[in-house]
Amino acid sequence: MSPVFVTLVIDTVAIVLPPGVKVPPLSGTRETTDTETGAVEITGHYDNLFVKVNEDHSVFIQGSLPRFLTGSNLRMLRRQGVREAVEKLSGAFSADPSLAKVVRLDVAATVSLPRPVPCYYPVLGSASRFERVPYRGGVLYRHRTRSLTVYDKGRRAGVAGHLLRFEASFKKRVNPQFGRVVMLSDLHEPGFYEVYVRRWLREYRRISKVRRHVLTPPSGVRDLTWQLAAVGLHAIGGEPVVSDMVDVWEMRRGRRYSMKRRLRELAAGGTSETDDALIAELDGAIERAERLALAS
Length: 296
Hints:
By secondary structure, this protein is α+β, with helices and mostly antiparallel strands.
């Protein structure tokens, strides 16, 4: 089955507008006072966006750009869609997008895969400098400045299909992470658009892939012994490592040949073909999502 791609690009953003912008009428407004500084803040919502007006009259805004523009974040925005969302947001707040500082940036893709999404979780291993934890039925990789999330978007959105979502969230220190000051107007600029799309793929590639060695119901004691030997061979480094040991052991040439043949047989039967297929399906879907985004 060929994957059907929903597409990739920005979902949630958080920005800070300078003082002097026009704040449209908000719903659910509340006034709060910071107990430590005494600063007064006004919070509320504009459409799906959370808005906070600080005492210095700067404005913090956070929310999903696709949902703001189209009412849903299932189908993500490509570059032209990002431009339209930025223009709509800038118009609502009478703000210059080149003066709106980005303080959070979530880049995501939803892809359709041939198997139920939870089938892919076991092949997702560790990621350097991230903590891997279960999260809301999916997998979360935590870091102090960003996170990576994999989950079943179809189930969460209540739609049919095996829809896997991979999301890279740059939640703190956005400027150092991208090596530049990031403004709202940059999000649809071709050069920076390519930067964050490629960065999204690099974050996915941080996650190691696990090829499990799975025991199948044995036909007897001999079959069980064979399967355990195959798993043990993999655990100590695989056929090349043990083959090198056999080369230096003292034995007849015929016995050495027989041992190496047996090692090759064990190695061939030791890796789960199902896991190899899962990894290939997932890698292929993610990589194609990046290519489609860059072609837009």
